[in-house]
């Protein structure tokens, strides 16, 4: 049994605080990861100084490097092959996305499904799963989400029935190859550092195929009936967001005190909870920016407000109510195009933690937010100061040009298929060739995956699939900083003996459980942990423990690492367990319990299938 040392106590304290911060998210996960990194460095640096003055008996060596040489190890996450490979995969995925290949595929799928829900569901999971094996699965969901909501709208199907399966299928599809998810890449690097060996490109593809088949079968049968219809089949976005009581039109009277004033001063900068959506003047309809326009008698404004505020507004500003029903078609009359869209706040968005006011949303994007949906909750009053979260869905009205800008902005995912004019369709064969070369060169061990991925990212730019200015926007920097921040925690766990101490506790279960059951314990423990904190953080915490436990048991460490890897990549039971679950949380109108209801049985099935599959394909003992 490993003795409890000051280093182990420090590591456990940091792990406990990290779990609390990851679970409750008072700050974003990447900031928590940087906090972990800084804390570990400060502890080792300050303890060394205190030891030199005789205040402490000795320095707390967390990284096994001695007092003066620790910054290199502590900052190694930034130079890690896992971090750099994930960074390159984001660029590769974006190169494929900008060719419009997936959008073309979506149009073909729409033709195939023809409004049939069974075909829609089959096509959704049948497409996203294999794609997620070769394009980062988070990126795959971001690309396919508009296609799936479009399928639901065309077929008069509830998007709730398709979006949760989309997220789940992307997760188990990501287990087909090494590059399917950042978790796999990180686990491979940790496994190599611990002496177990890195994963090859198709190291676990056979098990990934088994898991994928089982997962698809579940989603098409039991999962289909457990998945709720939170949002009714849509014919009109204003109906979906229940805007009937909040949208109306008012006309400016001849005696109104607003005459001659600018819209900005008279109706925007006011204490009333009112949003102006459009101005109808004669035969013309105007959208944002409305602020500079001068108000005239007979002007008709379409507004969002509640009934009580409307009555105050009519009395105070000399306005009359127009007896008309404001629906999606009325809000899209200005340009005869798609002016009303759902916009999802993406992970890593600059708007996370900001409100519509603090982010100057209306001014920055020339767009107006009519409503906000957070899971099953609809907010249609006093939205301006609500701090935004990842997965929040905004009902936005804007010009066609503004909608296209929102669609191109990585802070958002526009949940409708937008006919963009800037796709580089002529580069489709080139982008596919680059992806094939990256996978092929790594698969036959001509080049390490990090080298082939970075070379492929450069090739995307040199061949025109990506512009140089688009490279930095294509990377989810929050994921990169998350990886760089948590990797040193794994190093500290191993060097201090904290991982060994945890492993000793789990190994004790071998006194009354067979080896196969102990392997299952690791899967279940990792899965439960991942459903609460980041998948990458759970891999960093559990892989060193799994390796030490396997060594103590005389078992095959590779099998135990695989159990942790698969469990960390398939977190079905909470919306916070995996980024793709957050993607669909708002657009699907889900409740927290929906993930338990649909994902709980799937998690249990995967625990059994994965554990047995590992035992079948890889021996549990050397």
Walkthrough of the structure:
With 622 residues, the protein is of the alpha+beta class. The chain has three domains: 76-238 and 425-622, no CATH class; 245-324, Regulator of K+ conductance, C-terminal domain (Alpha-Beta Plaits, 2-Layer Sandwich), CATH 3.30.70.1450; 340-414, Alpha-Beta Plaits (2-Layer Sandwich), CATH 3.30.70. It contains 27 helices and ten strands. It has helices at 6-24, 29-52, 70-74, 81-97, 101-113, 117-132, 137-154, 160-173, 182-193, 205-220, 222-226, 237-240, 263-268, 307-317, 328-331, 361-365, 400-408, 428-443, 449-462, 468-474, 477-496, 498-507, 515-530, 535-553, 557-568, 579-585, 592-617; strands at residues 247-252, 275-281, 284-286, 300-304, 319-322, 340-345, 367-374, 377-379, 393-398, 412-414. A five-stranded antiparallel sheet has the order 3-2-4-1-5. A five-stranded antiparallel sheet has the order 8-7-9-6-10. It is globular, with a radius of gyration of 27 Å.
Strand order of the largest sheet: 3-2-4-1-5
Structure classification:
alpha+beta
CA distance, first residue to last residue? 23 Å
**What is the average per-residue confidence, as pLDDT, rounded to a whole number?**
83
| Number of DSSP strand runs | 10
The number of distinct helices, counting runs of at least 4 residues, comes to 27
């Amino acid at each position: 049994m490993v003795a409890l040392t000051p280093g182990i106590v420090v590591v456990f304290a940091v792990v406990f605080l990290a779990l609390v911060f990851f679970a409750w998210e008072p700050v974003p996960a990447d900031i928590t990861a940087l906090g972990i990194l800084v804390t570990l460095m400060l502890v080792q640096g300050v303890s060394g100084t205190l030891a030199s003055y005789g205040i402490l008996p000795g320095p707390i060596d967390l990284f096994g490097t001695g007092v003066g040489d620790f910054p290199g190890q502590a900052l190694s996450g930034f130079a890690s092959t896992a971090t750099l490979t994930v960074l390159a995969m984001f660029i590769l995925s974006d190169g494929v996305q900008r060719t419009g290949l997936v959008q073309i595929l979506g149009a073909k799928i729409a033709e195939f499904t023809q409004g049939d829900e069974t075909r829609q569901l089959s096509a959704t999971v049948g497409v996203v799963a294999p794609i997620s094996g070769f394009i980062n699965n988070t990126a795959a969901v971001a690309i396919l989400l508009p296609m799936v909501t479009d399928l639901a709208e065309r077929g008069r199907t509830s998007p709730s029935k398709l979006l949760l399966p989309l997220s789940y299928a992307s997760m188990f599809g990501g287990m087909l190859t090494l590059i399917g998810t950042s978790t796999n890449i990180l686990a491979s690097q940790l496994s190599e550092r611990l002496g177990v060996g890195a994963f090859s490109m198709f190291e676990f593809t056979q098990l990934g195929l088994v898991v994928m088949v089982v997962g698809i079968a579940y989603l098409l049968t039991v999962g289909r009936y457990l998945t709720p219809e939170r949002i009714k089949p849509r014919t009109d976005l204003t109906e979906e967001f229940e805007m009937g009581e909040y949208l109306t039109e008012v006309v400016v009277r001849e005696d109104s005190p607003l005459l001659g004033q600018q819209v900005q001063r008279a109706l925007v900068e006011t204490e009333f909870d009112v949003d102006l959506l459009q101005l109808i003047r004669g035969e013309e309809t105007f959208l944002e920016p409305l602020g500079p326009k001068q108000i005239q008698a007979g002007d008709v404004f379409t507004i969002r407000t509640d009934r009580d505020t409307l009555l105050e507004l009519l009395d105070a500003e000399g306005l009359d109510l127009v007896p008309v029903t404001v629906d999606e078609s009325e809000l899209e009359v200005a340009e005869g195009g798609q002016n009303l869209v759902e916009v999802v706040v993406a992970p890593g968005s600059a708007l996370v933690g900001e409100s519509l006011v603090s982010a100057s949303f209306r001014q920055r994007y020339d767009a107006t937010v009519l409503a906000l949906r957070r899971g099953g909750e609809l907010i249609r009053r006093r939205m301006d100061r609500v701090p935004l979260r990842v997965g929040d869905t905004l009902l936005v009205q804007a010009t066609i040009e503004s909608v296209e800008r929102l669609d191109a902005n990585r802070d958002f995912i526009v949940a409708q298929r937008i006919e963009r004019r800037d796709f580089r369709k002529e580069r489709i064969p080139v982008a596919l060739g680059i992806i094939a070369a990256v996978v092929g060169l790594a698969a036959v061990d001509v080049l390490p995956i990090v080298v082939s991925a970075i070379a492929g990212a450069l090739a995307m730019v040199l061949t025109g699939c990506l512009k140089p200015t688009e490279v930095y926007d294509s990377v989810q920097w929050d994921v990169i900083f998350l990886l760089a921040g948590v990797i040193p925690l794994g190093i500290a766990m191993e060097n201090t003996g904290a991982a060994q101490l945890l492993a000793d506790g789990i190994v004790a279960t071998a006194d009354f459980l067979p080896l196969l059951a102990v392997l299952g314990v690791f899967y279940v423990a990792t899965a439960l942990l991942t459903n609460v904190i980041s998948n990458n953080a759970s891999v960093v915490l559990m892989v060193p423990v799994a390796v030490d436990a396997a060594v103590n048991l005389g078992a095959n460490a590779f099998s135990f690492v695989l159990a942790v890897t698969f469990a960390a990549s398939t977190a079905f039971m909470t919306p916070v367990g995996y980024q793709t679950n957050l993607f669909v949380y708002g657009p699907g109108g889900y409740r927290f319990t929906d993930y338990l209801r649909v994902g709980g049985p799937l998690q249990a099935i995967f625990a059994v299938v994965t554990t047995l599959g590992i035992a079948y394909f890889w021996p549990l003992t050397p």
